[in-house]
Amino acid sequence: MISFYLLTYSWPFISGEVTYKDPSKNSTEGCNTEKFDWCEDLSQVNLWLYYILFVGVVGIGFSTMNVALITLYSEILGPRRQGTLQGIFQISSASSRMLGPFVLGNLYDAYGPKMTWKIELGMLSIAGAAWIAFYRKMVPLKTDKDGDDTELKDRSIKSKKEGNNNGVTNEAFDKTD
């Protein structure tokens, strides 16, 4: 994903100018300099490069990434409330797909494609940094033969020995699915 945004960004060193809309013609082709102040700051990205990367990264990469992400999330959840937590995960995903075009569309109108690309790169960088930082914590949930969370149970037993429950109760071990 990051390679898509880096390779299709309108870098200032790219040769070629964006076509401007001719106000005397009734055409939708070109960047409307009367409506958008940012038209003059753009460099034209190679359309073939953009189309090939779009099909490869967005068309193929998104579907593959979605399946892998849902599988990883399911493995990390373990025997917890899969249905509820997967539902919340899908709601957040669907909400971002509904709100994203509205938010990024308004940013695009106000600041142009460079700002949209910068925000996308920033979000991907933050997600990548979080993934790297928490990589060792993304492990499948360890359970005992009854399906109870062994790590949580160990912390609860240790806390009871120390006389401190730290908010851990036996309710955490009830199976509600």
Automatic annotation (TrEMBL):
Molecular function terms from GO: transmembrane transporter activity
A Gene Ontology term for the protein's cellular component: lysosomal membrane
Coiled-coil spans in chain: none
UniProt keyword list: Membrane, Transmembrane, Transmembrane helix, Transport
Protein known as: Major facilitator superfamily (MFS) profile domain-containing protein
Lineage of origin: Eukaryota, Metazoa, Ecdysozoa, Nematoda, Chromadorea
PANTHER family registered for this protein in UniProt: INNER MEMBRANE TRANSPORT PROTEIN YAJR, MAJOR FACILITATOR SUPERFAMILY DOMAIN-CONTAINING PROTEIN 8
Listed Basic and acidic residues bias regions: 144-163
Organism per entry: Panagrolaimus davidi
TM spans (from-to): 48-73, 116-135
InterPro entries named in the record: MFS, MFS_Domain-Containing_Protein, MFS_trans_sf
Cell compartments where the protein resides: Endomembrane system
Pfam family of the protein (one): MFS_1
Location of region: Disordered: 144-177
Topology of this chain in the membrane: Multi-pass membrane protein
